[in-house]
Write a structure and sequence with these properties.
By secondary structure, the chain is an all-alpha fold. The protein has a single domain (2-245), classed as Up-down Bundle (Four Helix Bundle (Hemerythrin (Met), subunit A)), CATH 1.20.120. It is 75% helix and 2% strand. The protein contains nine helices and two strands, in the order αααααβααβαα. The protein has a two-stranded antiparallel sheet with strand order 1-2. The radius of gyration is 21 Å and the shape is globular.
Length: 260
């Protein structure tokens, strides 16, 4: 029993390079780099899809490392550097080429701010004690921020007849870039799905939910990805606001109870 338990938590020695997780991380890096090239060439749709694909690989490499017992310090550092490219530089270049360029200095400063806050977000995450908060993130995860920019591109180009263009779109995306930059370095808590655990009795319900989610995504992915991204990005501030209101009401309720 103890041997089996220890095998699940094997961590590779410092400096060890684990091939399979590193290959998946490299695929994430490749997708992010391709997104940069596509954005520079004006292929914004392809760049957005590449960022989404990079997010899929980013979600796989850590799980594969944990399942195979090959987590290592090298893998964590490599993953963070690749994340900076795929979810920091790539979305910033995409947003700049797609929308921010006409704003001149304000445009490229917004793109730089996004890259800088992504780097700060990753540095803070690496320096935190991740074992103490497995179920939540402090600040918006950078893959979610990059995915939100990519999903916005896909949503705005959903249909040529109804393509969202113009000054209003540019202002909205500019504000979105600043908002995502703030949320990444904020103290707002976000739900983490990396260490999600499900009771045996509820695994079937979770499986059914996943099937429904996949079906929903497959119907109109450009729309559903965008709205799922919006829901996740707003979930942190809304939950923080709810906790703040609830905390402010508690003393009032206690005073009313004591007065009675």
């Amino acid at each position: 029993m103890n041997r089996h338990h220890k095998a699940k938590n094997v961590v590779s020695p410092k400096g060890t390079i684990c091939l399979l997780p590193s290959v998946i991380t490299t695929a994430s890096l490749f997708s992010g780099f391709y997104a940069i090239v596509a954005a520079i060439n004006g292929q914004y749709f392809h760049a957005a899809v590449a960022i989404i694909v990079s997010g899929v690989f980013d979600g796989l490499d850590g799980r594969v490392a944990r399942l195979t017992g090959t987590t290592s310090k090298f893998g964590m550092e490599y993953d963070s550097l690749c994340d900076l490219v795929a979810f920091g530089v790539a979305p910033a270049v995409l947003a700049y080429q797609w929308v921010l360029r006409p704003y001149g200095r304000y445009g490229w400063l917004a793109a730089f701010l996004y890259v800088a806050t992504t780097a700060l977000r990753l540095a803070r995450f690496n320096s935190q004690d991740i074992t103490s908060s497995k179920n939540e993130f402090t600040g918006l995860p950078c893959p979610a921020a990059g995915g939100m920019i990519a999903a916005s591109v896909l949503f705005c180009s959903y249909n040529e007849r109804f393509e969202i263009i113009g000054t209003l779109r540019n202002f909205i995306i500019l504000g979105t870039v600043y908002g995502l930059s703030y949320l990444m370095v904020s103290s707002v808590k976000y739900l983490s799905f990396k260490h999600a655990q499900t009771e045996r009795t509820k695994k079937f319900q979770v499986l059914v939910g996943l099937v429904l989610l996949i079906t929903l995504l497959a119907t109109e992915p450009q729309i559903t990805l965008f709205f799922l991204g919006v829901i996740y990005v707003l979930s942190g501030p809304l939950a923080a606001g709810y906790r703040l209101v609830r905390r402010s009401k508690s003393p009032v309720e206690e005073e009313q109870g004591n007065s009675v």
